[in-house]
């Protein structure tokens, strides 16, 4: 009798524990939704024309195409940050992989437009500065009028630690209404080379130039590509095998540049752009 009662109590305790765990997981979801709702308007669409010249080593092929990229609005008067690598068609990455054959490849960008949310209305814009090392490019709306843009608040920021839960936000493509998409993951590591970078446990090639937040909505940084200084002994081609390929894999999947570094670089870009 006592043994049966003990088993019933044990099963009851197990069910209560499972219910509590389920409730705990459910309580995390509104936090993610709250972060998305608070910051989604700061994720804007940049349309532009990208021209690629593949250089003589690649047959001299030239290509011009219209591109669309999700970027981060960082000021009320229309300053936008994008991933410089994504903005330029990953030309620097292609040059690294191609080695000497890609030394004269180049990319140019023009005819910038900034769209807010899923609105078809576009603001003319121009590029004002680039930082290839940090993988940041700044674009400014040329005539915002009296419009005050929703933007990321660098002052509402936080440092992150290994194991801490974080939320990243991007937008789906135009075919899916540019819907905001959140990813919840954790900080897996913190690199000190080539600079301080947060390394998420769940990495993605999407979302470069876009923000990462703590669970309570404070910004910790922007997702970036960090091209390694060493790509292999031969500087490209077959030299990408081995250690070079390992470096490239880490570089291509999103790393998080701390917001303090982004803020300092943005101050420098503002000085250039005015």
Automatic annotation (TrEMBL):
What protein am I looking at?
Answer: Trypsin-like peptidase domain-containing protein
Its signal peptide is 1-26
- One protein family per Pfam: Trypsin_2
Q: Which domain of life is it from?
A: Bacteria
Task: List UniProt keywords, sorted A-Z.
Answer: Signal
């Amino acid at each position: 009798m006592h043994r049966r009662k003990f088993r019933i109590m044990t099963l009851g305790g197990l069910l209560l524990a499972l219910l509590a765990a389920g409730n705990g997981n459910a309580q995390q979801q509104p936090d993610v939704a709250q972060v998305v709702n608070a910051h989604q308007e700061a994720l804007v669409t940049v349309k532009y024309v990208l021209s690629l010249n593949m250089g003589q080593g690649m047959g001299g092929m030239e290509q011009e195409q219209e591109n669309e990229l999700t970027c981060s609005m960082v000021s009320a008067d229309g300053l936008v940050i994008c991933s410089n690598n994504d903005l330029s068609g990953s030309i620097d990455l292609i040059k690294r992989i191609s080695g000497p054959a890609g030394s004269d490849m180049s990319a140019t960008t023009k005819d910038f437009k900034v769209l807010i949310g899923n609105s078809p209305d576009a603001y003319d814009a121009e590029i004002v500065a680039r930082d290839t090392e940090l993988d940041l490019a700044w674009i400014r709306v040329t005539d915002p009028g009296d419009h005050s843009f929703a933007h990321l608040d660098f002052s509402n920021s936080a440092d992150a630690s290994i194991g801490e839960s974080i939320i990243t936000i991007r937008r789906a493509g135009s075919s899916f209404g540019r819907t905001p998409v959140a990813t919840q993951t954790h900080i897996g590591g913190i690199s000190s080379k080539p600079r301080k970078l947060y390394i998420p446990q769940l990495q993605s090639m999407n979302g470069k130039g876009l923000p990462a937040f703590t669970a309570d909505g404070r910004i910790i940084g922007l997702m970036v590509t960090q091209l390694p200084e060493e790509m292999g002994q031969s500087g490209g081609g077959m030299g990408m095998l081995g250690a070079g390929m390992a470096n490239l894999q880490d570089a291509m999947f999103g790393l998080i540049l701390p917001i303090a570094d982004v803020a300092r670089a943005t101050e420098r870009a503002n000085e250039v752009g005015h």
